[in-house]
Each structure stands twice: as structure tokens, then as C-alpha cells.
Known about the structure:
Number of strands: 7
Keywords: DNA-binding, Phosphoprotein, Plasmid, Transcription, Transcription regulation
Structural class: alpha/beta
Helix content: 40-55%
CATH architecture of the largest domain: 3-Layer(aba) Sandwich
CATH class of the largest domain: Alpha Beta
Distance between the termini: 38 Å
Order of helices and strands: EHEHEHEHEHHEEHHHH
Number of domains: 2
Protein name: DNA-binding response regulator
Pfam family, one: Response_reg
InterPro entries: CheY-like_superfamily, NreC/VraR/RcsB-like_REC, Sig_transdc_resp-reg_C-effctor, Sig_transdc_resp-reg_receiver, Tscrpt_reg_LuxR_C, WalR-like
GO molecular function: DNA binding
Amino acid sequence: MSAAHAGPDPACEPAADEAAPVTVLVVDDEELTRAGLRALLSVQHGLEVVGEASDGAEVLPLVKRWRPRVVLMDVRMPRLDGITATKLLRSELTDPPKVVVITTFENDAYVWDALLAGAQGFIRKRAPIAQLAQAIRLVAQGDSLLFPDAVRRLAAQQPAPPPRAVGGTRAASLTVREEETLRLMARGLSNQQIAHRMAVRLETVKTHVGNVLGKLNADNRTHAVVVAYETGVLVPGGRASDDHQRF
């Protein structure tokens, strides 16, 4: 039997606006984990859990039905894992939801593969609920990298990449300003913070970010940073800027 839970009828939902809650689909094969996350997230300001799924195979149809802004996705599931489910969302939908991977171990190789598949970030299952809620809000906002220090540490654990070769796209095609934008994205800075750091207009930063995503064949800014680490465009050394979000 499916573990999918009905949410509100999308036809009755109010139009999305700045005040609308961030809708969330919880995906985990453990019933107690799902129930706990649903209960805890449901009382967090600005969040609304619209449904649950016990396996990755349920994710795509439920996303089509309830249109959540964020999917909180377990990675290891018995039938269809979270990596494949994330790939399906990105290949089958023109406007897929954001995906946050929930994991037991931060250095799980599956997490890196999920980020390469297009997930926007990851967080440990034992994280404080306030931290998880804030992570979901930030991912829904979409203009900064979630936990850049953790992404960099995970990148450092991967095999050494070939130098500056991006899957058929020349890394050298990045301009100096685009590379600078990419480095600041990797530190977790938002578009507004990047604009301030580079002393340019916000619209210019948005253009640079769009160009970076296109040249790295990335679906989102997290994916771009992960691809850059994976292919040697960025090297995961040193500490990130203090400008990134703190929890």
C-alpha cells in the first residue's frame, strides 16, 4: 500500500505570493521518520507539509498532484532511490520542485550523487528542527548555496577530478567575472551579497549566474558548484566566506 498522504486540493489553494507558505513533500521509507518530520515541520512558521511518500517511485506522481515547492528526499530507499527520483523530477517536469536530501551521514557518497543529479542541498536527519525548517526556506528562496562548508568538505572526499573539463563544455569559456561569480556562489553568497562584493548591479549578477549555469550545463546554482568541484574548475580548499547563511 502506498504511504502517500492526501494534501489540500490544489484547485482550492490560494495563488502563490510572498506570504504563501513553502509547501513540502516528505519522502522517506521509514514511517516513524516521515510522521516525525511531518509533525515537526507542520508547526514551523511558513511551512506546510502537503504529503508523504515511502519510496522514490511515488515522488513524481505526487509532485504532479500537489505541486510542492520543496521535496525533502531520503536517499536510500528500497525500490527507487532518491538520486533516481531527483533525476526523474528534473527530466519530466519543466518546473521541478527544489530537492533537499536528508541523510544519516553527511559524507555519504549517495549525497554527492544526489547533488550531481540536481538536488539543491542536504541536511542530516538529526539536525535540529529549526535548522531543517530554515534550510527548506532558504532552498525555496533559491539564490544561495545551502551549507557551503559541508558541500566543500564533501567535494574534498571525492576522487581528484581532471583539470577544468566540463562534460563537453570548455571551462575556459567562463569569463573572469563569471569565474568570480562562481567562486562567490560556492561560498554561499546570495545574488545581493555577490553584487555588493563585486560592486555591480543585481541584474548583472543574475546575468553572470545564468551564464555560469548555462556554460556548466547545470540546473541550479548548487548543481553548478558541485559540477565545478567535480570537474576541477573549483578546488575544495580553505574556508568559505563568513557572508554565507548561518543557523
